[in-house]
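Suppose you are handed a protein chain with no further information: no name, no annotation, nothing but its sequence. What can you learn? This example shows the usual starting point.
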Amino acid sequence: MTTPTNSEHPADSSSDLPPLPPDAAPWQSAGYRDENARLLVSAIHRRRGALLIEFPDVPVQGYDVILPEEGPAGAITCSVLISLWRESELCRGTCPHCDGTALALAFGGTGESWFVVGVCPLCGSYVFRPSEKGALFAALAQSLEGWCFRLPTQSQLLLSNAHQHLALLAALRTLGEHLLPPDHYGFAASLPDAMRRWQSAAEQRIGIWSQRGAIIHAATGAHVEKNTATWPLLTDFVREFLLRTGTLPELDHAGPDGLDFSFPLSSQEPVSYRVEAPAADETPTNDVDYAADDDDDGEGSLQGLIDRLVTDWRAKRPIAESLARIQETLEESGDIHSGYDILGVFLGPKAMADAFAVIDDDVVRQALEITDRRVNQTQRIEFFEQHVLEGLLEDADVTRAFVPIVLESSDGESLQLVVGISGYSFTILEYEWHGPFEAEFDFAEWVRKEGWVETVEEFQQMGARRKAKLLG
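A reasonable first move is to predict its three-dimensional structure. Written in structure tokens, the prediction is:
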């Protein structure tokens, strides 16, 4: 089947992109194709000259509108992306599937591990290049030297990930493009495993928006916890809204059971990244000043909440309210970093049991070359160890990075909270809080006693009876 193009601007038209140096690192295949992404990149590439002249400050994707005190909002613009295509060897290269020229479309990452994610405008294959965050941003910034544009900040790149391309699509239609993705489409930069696993761009965006959205009790305005009871209500609402309207909700909407769903407002307004504009310093740090807060130092401030929590916990009084507010504040302020002082990345018994429960006996029989008609539990566990466990340990959606947070009161007393972080910071990120504990409490030892593992070897060292109990 021939890939469709706009006849007057064929997708494989001659390129003005300079050749790559011979030692440039090749694109790696993500093992996934996306026709909507192909249409989008192909159209940008065809109209790159006109976009630079007429729509340089149009954002490639929309972006979350954030409070002014949280920093400038924005997204990568057409001018920046097209300039990077021309100047950066990280942002173009030969497609490993069809030998076309794959081009970068987004950047994302978690901790120090970041990716340039690209798309081939001929075959639609997702490709990527991994990089250490600091080295990636330094290389991209160097590529823009001599141009009048600068890079967005790291947070801006992450906050625009998977948003719709409404402004860009409107610009491309103005320039005469017809073969374009639907308005509700939003490209998402993900880790390679996630790109292979998520086969639906719509489902991907539903998950991202559900993660960002808040659930509010309509009668009182109180925030409702996202849990196994309320999460399906939120995702079902977003899915039904998308199917009914062709777009995602952006403001408060009435939901079922007396709940309101509140979503971050996104913008498609032009954003200027001229070099004259001051760049925001977004160097991440783990030196969190828990005493600093927009409120005064009274009971409503974060330090006041910590003081109250420590005092009540020592006196064995209820701590639920202050603990919930501290957790919410830390999540909203972004003062949780899985790359710092991490206790370890562990796989829990439930995740192992869930994966074990869906193992197919025919697959076990073939992998272990079993001739008997029946497959026993010991053989299933052997298959799980050899063929399933390692993949689970590498999946950030099912493992948890446990990060300790020491809360120190004004009088020097300390407690320890531990947050388990799962998912990817540029897609869906979930938090699971544990504690409080004494500051010296060995949480890593405790989770191992509960059956969590950090390596395949830890599971292999367990006795047969304990393995069966964990997986049963």
